[in-house]
Amino acid sequence: MAALIDTTTETAIDPRGVNSGVTPVTYGHGERPPRGDYAQARADYTCEQDWAAYSAADHDLYRRLYERQAAQLRGLACDEFVDAIGQLGSPAHIPRFDALSEKLQRATGWQVVAVPGLIPEEAFFSLLSRRRFPVTGWIRKPEEFDYVVEPDVFHDLFGHVPLLFNPMFADYMQAYGAGGLKASRLGSCEHLARLYWYTVEFGLIDTPTGLRAYGAGILSSAGELRHSVTSREPQRLGFDLERIMRTRYKIDSYQPTYFVIDSFKQLFDATAPDFEPIYQRVAGLQELAAEERLPTDRVF
Ligand code: PHE
Ligand code: FE
């Protein structure tokens, strides 16, 4: 799941992130309206999963996505992810969110809630800060088997939910949500969004057995998982909060740069301080291109 991030076009979204009954018209940097039926969403953008509406073909597509991805986790995905993937239940069906929430609630106090698709930043942050992870209801079309532009139910569940079973990561996600509400007030959402991108979506972790993926964008990607961990092409740099906040990212290609954490504890501790002075400092520094390399970078 990602928040709807757009600053370029006029939008029909209430700036407080409340669903005012109008469809969000923009997201990312494109002009397409987001998929999904926003008319059914509540004020906080959550809706019913409507599990009965999935067709046999939908379930089958989920199973094929799941199996392709599960088959390549070994040696590429971090242990915390691999250990928890079974919590999603049988790959034969798109999981029922309420059953999954019960397990998650017991493990870390999190729940998954259905949303029509991308939602505005404030609504997204608000859900995270209450330990609710928004999961898109719809599944991609068969012709999008290899690539889908917007997050669908497979990306959101397979990519994001397993690590929510990890207590440290679960706490990080909640802190991120609370930090997001604060960043909105301070006008610093873009800087904070880069942290989400380079950790929650595309993060790598250094382990005794080598680099592994923990970011949902790579773990749910057929091609980028292997690429991010093993290809010689991208650069892999040590986690550096301010460096990340300054670094733009690509939304339409594999990442030229991945940031590597040493542990989830490191990630949690490094992001615990008050970001307000950090946002101020970063605002005065030059932005960095996605592929840039600095002399101070710790290269893996
Ligand atoms: N410490 C951050 C702040 O004061 C909050 C935060 C924590 C943001 C974790 C992101 C991740 O804004
Ligand atoms: Fe995501």
Quick structural summary:
The chain has 300 residues and is of the alpha/beta class. The protein is 38% helix and 10% strand. Phenylalanine binds at residues 172, 175-176, 179, 182, 195, 271-275.
Can you tell me about this structure?
The chain is α/β, with parallel strands linked by helices and 300 residues long. It is 38% helix and 10% strand. The chain contains twelve helices and eight strands. The chain has helices spanning 56-70, 79-84, 97-108, 121-129, 153-160, 167-186, 189-201, 216-219, 224-230, 241-246, 264-270, 276-283, and strands at residues 3-4, 111-115, 119-120, 132-136, 204-207, 210-213, 235-238, 257-261. The strands form three sheets. A four-stranded mixed sheet has the order 6-5-8-7. A two-stranded parallel sheet has the order 1-3. Strands 2-4 form a two-stranded parallel sheet. Strand 5 (204-207) and strand 6 form a beta hairpin. The two termini are 28 Å apart. The model is unreliable at 4-29 (pLDDT under 50). The structure holds phenylalanine and fe (iii) ion. Fe (iii) ion binds next to helix 5 and helix 8.
